[in-house]
Structure to design on (279 residues):
């Protein structure tokens, strides 16, 4: 046993003297108690707005924005967010998270577990929520630089890091997919830039993506989401969770579609497809 370990074993345990709050506090939600039962809410307010009035007068997109940003969106912000929500509602059956949902469904997992299983995969770094925060920070950091020059500089500086095989993400939110430019987020970006209002980072990302196209790279869905989130004023720490929320409907739909099918509805990898490398 080393001396340092002995010293640690004989150190006196002391309190950190942390002072904990007596009550849970939140600025997001207010529950006004019922006169008959204080544990039951008589009415609910989101950032000061009555929930029933929001239901009667506002859309889901309005409520979504209000919940996270603390104020209702403008007409331009609403349109931009709504278009993004539609564009990202389904990652598609090629996405690993969707395949996880489909496997969970056909494997007869409990229905309440299908979405959490797929969202765990969607939380990863590969085409998942784990890359969104980094993409938001990358865009915010380079927003004042020329996007074309930035792309060209990165291609030179990071040339030695480009893999001989497989995809390469030259920057968070940008790269190749299946060896080429991912067409879907590129088309979504073209639709999103048509929205009026603030789109500074979305515009920057479009120029940056175009400069990468000659190298078989461009927008990835996580980068597109990051640009819109940043233009709408969301903090980068929110990016991962927001991306998971927007993709959740498609994951659940694909998983539950498979739930009533036999397990043979999904392909099973044959023994010939396995390769053992003894080296």
């Amino acid at each position: 046993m080393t001396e340092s370990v002995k010293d640690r074993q004989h150190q006196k345990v002391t309190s950190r003297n942390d002072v904990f709050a007596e009550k849970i506090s939140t600025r997001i939600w207010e529950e006004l108690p019922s006169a008959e039962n204080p544990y039951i809410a008589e009415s609910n307010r989101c950032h000061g707005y009555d929930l029933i009035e929001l239901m009667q007068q506002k859309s889901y997109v309005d409520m979504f924005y209000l919940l996270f940003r603390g104020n209702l969106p403008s007409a331009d912000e609403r349109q931009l967010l709504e278009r993004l929500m539609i564009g990202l509602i389904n990652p598609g059956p090629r996405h690993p998270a969707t395949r996880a949902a489909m496997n969970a469904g056909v494997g007869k997992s409990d229905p309440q577990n299908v979405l959490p299983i797929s969202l765990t995969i969607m939380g990863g770094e590969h085409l998942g929520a784990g890359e969104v925060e980094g993409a938001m920070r990358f865009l915010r950091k380079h927003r004042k630089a020329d996007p074309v020059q930035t792309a060209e500089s990165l291609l030179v500086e990071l040339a030695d890091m480009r893999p001989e095989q497989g995809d390469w993400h030259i920057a968070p939110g940008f790269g190749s997919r299946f060896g080429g430019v991912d067409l879907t987020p590129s088309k979504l970006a073209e639709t999103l830039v048509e929205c009026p209002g603030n789109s500074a980072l979305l515009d920057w990302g479009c120029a940056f993506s175009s400069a990468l196209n000659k190298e078989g790279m461009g927008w990835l869905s996580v980068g597109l989401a990051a640009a819109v989130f940043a233009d709408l004023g969301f903090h980068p720490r929110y990016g991962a969770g927001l991306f998971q929320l927007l993709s959740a409907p498609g994951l659940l739909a694909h998983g539950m579609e498979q739930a009533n099918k036999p397990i043979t509805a999904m392909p099973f990898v044959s023994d010939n497809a396995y390769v053992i490398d003894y080296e």
Q: What stands out?
A: Strands lie at 29-33, 41-46, 49-50, 174-175, 218-219. The longest helix spans residues 239-259. DSSP finds twelve helices and five strands in the chain.
